[in-house]
Amino acid sequence: MNRTHMLKAIIHNFSKHKSSFLIASLLLLLSSFFSVLTPYFIMKILDESIPFGEWSSLLGYIALAFIATFLNNLTKLLSDYVFSKLARTFVINIRSRCIAHLQQMNGEYYTHINSGDMLKTIFEDIENIQQTATYSFVNFAADILISVGMLFFLGWLQPELLMGLLLLQVFVFLGQKKFNRWVEAQSISLRSASGELYSLIQEVISNLMNFVVIGVNSLFREKYMKLEKTNAKQQIKTQLVFSLSNGFLQLSGMIITLFILGYGGYKVIEGSLTIGGLITFNVYSQRLIAPIMRASQFQTRLAGALASWQKIRDILEAPLNWGESDAMLNKCSSIRSIDFQNVTFQYDDKLVLSKVSMQFESKKIYAIVGESGSGKSTITYLMLKLWPIEKGNILVNGTSINRISTTDLRQQIAVVSQNTLLFNDTIYNNLALGSTTITEADVMEVLRIVELYEFVMQLPQQLQTEIGEQGIRISGGQRQRLSIARALLRPASVLILDEATSMLDPITEEKIMFNLNQHIQDKIVIVIAHRLRTVVSSHEIYLLHEGRLAERGNHESLLAGKKQYQAMFERTV
Ligand SMILES: Nc1ncnc2c1ncn2[C@@H]1O[C@H](COP(=O)(O)OP(=O)(O)OP(=O)(O)O)[C@@H](O)[C@H]1O
């Protein structure tokens, strides 16, 4: 079932490049055909030219052998070229489909993925399938064709010798099959062990300095050594199984050659086979062994490819958000309003929001405040369709969020979260993220809004300054400001700042909030903050308490209410 599914998907992928695929396959078949001609000409030289002193036929067969070898190489070269182009197209296509699918998933999925394993799938498994899809399938077909042709030829040369050879081959094939199953089981265990190790190392490498600063190196070492040992055990086992399998192949190859020389020699002495015939029989039988061995190894390859395919399917077929593809949902090119109507939500069995109603409209700044764990960030996640709501509804431009394309929604909402995400690149590239429409003037403008303009201008390389991995070469506050600047450059209609200014001094924070006020244009701006000084200028403030909306209003009215907000304000300012 899985095999059929994989074949269908591969055929579907190549259907757009049918002609290239056919040309490459044809070239490979031709190359295999030319490769088997040479021994035939050698037999002719040994049996017909040399014994009878035929100079002209000797030269003729040498010329033919040369032409066959030349054409064999030429057609192989051309087929390799077309196949490698097809292979790259295949990899890019599947890889980008995986990435696009991953971007539409939900929070449950993101919080449970094993990123190391996933990276392995996106890089190694896709390459593995590609190898099987391009070379192995066609080589397999060519091998079968060539083997059949050679069998006829060998039967014509010496039928009894051929019968003996085939009998031996059957034993080899059955033995190899057993090894294949062993190799397959071993590869799956190795994959899982190396996936876990990869994941851990990836986590450490991307947070090297943090590991040192926080001092969790020894903890990591213990975990690392344990995984490394399991992985090493699996690697050694796999290597052993591979070596045993190869040893078996070599041994059986040698037994077959000795059989041909022994029984074929007897036939030569008896006079029913020529010396040229025996040499050619031996050469062809080697060539016959190779395709049969490859055909049996093809099973192993196919098994490996199937394991890889299952991993890719796990990504491509992971149920989409709300189980619906974006193509079936409404497009959304800008968000003008978001309306939470009695929204109740829980993670697993932990109730986080209870009957929360909030409204957000464009051209206004809103604030969500409340103690830690009261559900503020969760509001953002629900807007991004990361989790489905239990009860109530969220309307976006008057339409239920469930009916709106997840991709469009996520494009329209720019979130600057507590965890900054910066890349090991220049300031400019971190802001523009490859966009060709963003100009240097745009970048300068947002740098002014986030109060980073002077800082960047006094750097020797200004916008071209490299900031290191995750922005390690700049301060925490500067990282936050760069993240805000990047969000401002995005053509999104909602900007959410979730504790995005928490590392700034109160004066810079106040300046940035003032600048933002001047530049909100048509956006909905939502500020989530603990320091209430950050939110005093908001048009509307929502105060969450234990998952319920406890208070709402602007700063002045909430202060005048003399309830929780006023107490919080006095505590934090
Ligand atoms: N993925 C998750 N799975 C299970 N529980 C979660 C998950 N994310 C958050 N929670 C829980 O939901 C509650 C609300 O979390 P949320 O992040 O929305 O709070 P918050 O008000 O933004 O907190 P803070 O101010 O500390 O950032 C917390 O008790 C938290 O432990």
Automatic annotation (TrEMBL):
PROSITE patterns: ABC_TM1F, ABC_TRANSPORTER_1, ABC_TRANSPORTER_2. It is a multi-pass membrane protein. It is found in: Cell membrane. CDD domains: ABC_6TM_exporters. InterPro entries: AAA+_ATPase, ABC1_TM_dom, ABC1_TM_sf, ABC_transporter-like_ATP-bd, ABC_transporter-like_CS, P-loop_NTPase, Type_1_exporter. The lineage of its organism: Bacteria, Bacillati, Bacillota, Bacilli, Bacillales. The keyword Metal-binding does not apply. PANTHER family: ATP-BINDING CASSETTE SUB-FAMILY B MEMBER 10, MITOCHONDRIAL (PTHR43394:SF1), ATP-DEPENDENT PERMEASE MDL1, MITOCHONDRIAL (PTHR43394). The chain crosses the membrane at residues 21-43, 55-75, 137-157, 200-220, 240-262. Residues 338-571 form the ABC transporter domain. It comes from Paenibacillus woosongensis. This is ABC transporter ATP-binding protein.
